[in-house]
């Protein structure tokens, strides 16, 4: 399983390594997962494209915010052949079912719903919690999977919404694990432990409450008290740690790498924090202990967002259904949307594995030419950026160059008796003086043309940037884009990327 906050589903394919092919089919083949959860899709139903919905080999499920456009959103892709019994939007069960019109999920018969709905959440509150398109719940034969994009806290009003969201999530998970194995995956916007937050570690170090260490084992041993305090410092952090400590759920990445420092999944790209790995681990895959997690890690070398993908491998024997009883996906599947409904034939849903193998064999040589494979090693530096320089047509050879005004023209081939131009007095601004030039003296004709070009380059060359007062290195210029009185203004900052060392 893979979780990836793409920060805009229309944008992610423009970056390495996905821009090598720019298709979700290529992306999903590269991720090689049975279930893929994308968060912060920032798209509405009417803006979905066939490329996003009808990805070869996958069924797609989307949830959207009710009112805000280009905001939040979660998508779940499940590989065909994995039977999805039920699919729901939201956590509280107060949204209307797509399978049974006019009926909310919690009002369905037990055999028709996933269940586990929190009884303490009333309808008005539940609709508000689920109205931002932040959760999809799928019931497979082997487990219930919850895909999430949890809200961050920014204002007092949002903190109230965030608390309600996590309350609903906590109650739903506690109810579901009584009946079936559960996987919770997505961007939870919580740094569960102190070692999951570079900013938290640095702040506490400056306050003298944290002792630096050479590795994770030493850091945990000498800072055990403050780490326990961190785990209970907020309601959401306390809730998440109770899943692990009290409910027996597994933080898949952390259990495979219990003492690794710098295992971050999100960075502030405006500060260049990814280069210095100054980030936080807020993307997770949790599972109940009855699901065997064989491997889990972050994929920090894969770009396209301010987050990186997280994966977890599970050994589930009853995940795939038999070919003789392949069923249609629930109505929440995006393939039922009007404009996509007839794009696939019934035959394609029941295609045998032998037919798929033949198809793969036939196009293998063609795909070798068209679809470059992604790099499995981390991509360094600016490799994710592409050249945006466009070529420009050369001007006409008859067009007069600006530096030609500083030279005395040669004899006219048609009339050698014509006098040279007179009265042209352009000014060249140097560092200390201004030279007024008329017709050049014969002795100056030997000055190379390059000298004039160099003079103009000097005029238009900007002054060097100021130097950082701390590191004595050239600063870099940034521009304010936030709305307000300072929007559009530029300022100088230290050019070093943000890291714990700096």
From TrEMBL:
Q: Which cofactor does it need?
A: Mg(2+); Mn(2+)
The record ties this protein, via PANTHER family, to: AP ENDONUCLEASE, DNA-(APURINIC OR APYRIMIDINIC SITE) ENDONUCLEASE 2
Output the GO biological process annotations, alphabetical, semicolon-separated.
base-excision repair
Site feature Important for catalytic activity, where: 283
Polar residues composition bias: which ranges? 350-367, 377-389
Q: Name one Pfam family in it.
A: Exo_endo_phos
Name of the protein in question: DNA-(apurinic or apyrimidinic site) endonuclease
Marked site positions, Interaction with DNA substrate: 307
User: What is the protein's species of origin?
Assistant: Trichomonascus ciferrii
Name the domain of life: Eukaryota
Q: Name one GO molecular function term.
A: double-stranded DNA 3'-5' DNA exonuclease activity
Q: Which UniProt keywords apply?
A: DNA damage, DNA repair, Hydrolase, Magnesium, Manganese, Metal-binding, Nucleus, Zinc, Zinc-finger
Q: Where does Mg(2+) bind?
A: 5, 40, 187, 189, 306-307
Q: Where is the composition biased (Basic and acidic residues)?
A: 409-419
- What family does this chain come from, according to its entry? Belongs to the DNA repair enzymes AP/ExoA family.
Q: Which GO terms describe its cellular component?
A: nucleus
